[in-house]
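User: Predict the structure for this protein chain, please.
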Amino acid sequence: MKEFALVLSMWTHTGTEWVLSRQDVLKEDYHHEHCEFSSYEEVSDKNNGNKYLNVTIQCYPVSCTDKEMC
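Assistant: Here is the predicted structure, written as C-alpha cells:
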C-alpha cells in the first residue's frame, strides 16, 4: 500500500503575489485515507482573518520525495 506524507505550507502575500515562506513535512507516514482526513480536519476552518497569510495542508506520496513533479 502506498504511503503518504502530510505537508504544511505557509504562504505570505507581498502585496502583488503569493510567496512560499515555509514548508514542513510531518515525519509520520500515513495511508491515503488517513492523510486526506487529517488535512481536511486541519483546513475545514481555514479562514484565519489575515489576507497576507495562507496555510495549506496537502498529502503527497512518499515516493515523490526529492522529485520536481510526481
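The chain has one domain: 3-64.
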